[in-house]
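Before relying on records like the one below, remember that each one covers exactly one chain. Contacts with other chains, cofactors or solvent are not represented anywhere in the record.
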Amino acid sequence: MTFSGKLSDLKRCFQGVVPSIITTSDGEGVPNVTFISHVYYVDEQHVALSCQFFNKTRKNLDDNPLACVEVWEPTTLQAYRLHLRFLRSEKTGTLFETMRVRIDAIASHTGMSGVFRLIAADVFEVKAIEVVEGFLVEVPPDIPAEPISIEGLRTEVRGLQCISDRVNRAADLETLLHNVLEALEDYFHFSHTSVLLFEEASQQLVTLASRGYGESGVGAEVPVGQGVIGTVARERRVLRLTNLEADLDYARAIRREAQAERGGPALKMEVPLPGLPDAQSVLAIPLAIGDRLIGVLSAEDRDPMRFGEWHEAYLEIVGNQIALGVERMLNRAEEQDEPVHATPAPAVPPPPAKARHLTLTFYKSDDAIFVDDEYLIRNVPARILWRVLRESQRTGRTEFSNRELRLDAWLGLPPVKANLESRLILLRQRLREKCPDIQLTPTGRGRFALRACPGIELTER
């Protein structure tokens, strides 16, 4: 039966939740059938397929440009056949780049960078759409493609207004990040979100805020270019993935075949995804000002259909608000640094009378601190904590300033854009989670106080 609607009415079919089937034939009419993970919607008359490994399909299209693709509506499992004519292969441009980023992210996660890659975006004209009859026992009613009511728009606008207001009213960076993730959950029910900020010196993204993961993922690091989040950071492009596990399974199958080939290229280790181990959908938004990367906002869910095009466009706007807010907070923190007082001025309550014995060990080889043999933190935040604890034991001081940290060459802060405030936020959160007997409490503009239980033993190795 001929489909009476528009190609855009089938947009759910193009989210990759259910793998599609492509049929081609050679010049003599011999068919070839294979699965494909994704069919890309281009416009009302065109779709695109990724050209990667399908040598037989590619050869058939050179001989005979006609093809048929079967796609499924994931909420009803109604099948549709798209009758196609191959037009061209694109190796540059917006369409190619959009498809490439998705494939690069999956390849990076599975250690297949350079092997599992997009060669070209094959563009097809849609000649006809056919409803597959008899595929379901009962034909489901037509379901509109992600309708947006006026009331829904008002809700989204109110949500955007709320997030913008919370960004503007936040007194510090830590509050800003907390408020943004809280608003995303309150207004849009995004239950699993995180914000990672970019560290230029290490070329890594560091998780500074997360929500919905039980034990916080604060402190988790992702190298730029690695995995889904790292790819979004490198490309400065939004990435929305549906049915993530199926994409990963497909890439892993290609990986096994590549490893089995004699003389095949050496493959990297698979990269663990931060966040939900069973996430089925991911939406990652770069936080950038112009071409300058600030960080990445990530949302994920166990529902493979959780995020749509509307969320993608909406969170891009939210991302711009967050990036500007973070930049403003970091600049404000640098401007508010004050010189340290000549004499210590206790600004926090005395440590508790009863306290357990703690041993903190600083490992010089990798700048890491362990508390009673359990990892706490590393790199610049670890050096900050170690410097503060050593100085307090030596002189009795409990109050410190951001200014003196910036001037301390041993800490290794870059002279420009040191992001000291973000490092202090990370340190305070790790202490709250892993070592609450030690606290770094803000006491004023560019100042903080150390509150620690007595009897802490400091050792170096």
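Residues 7-131 form a domain with the Pnp Oxidase; Chain A fold (CATH 2.30.110.10).
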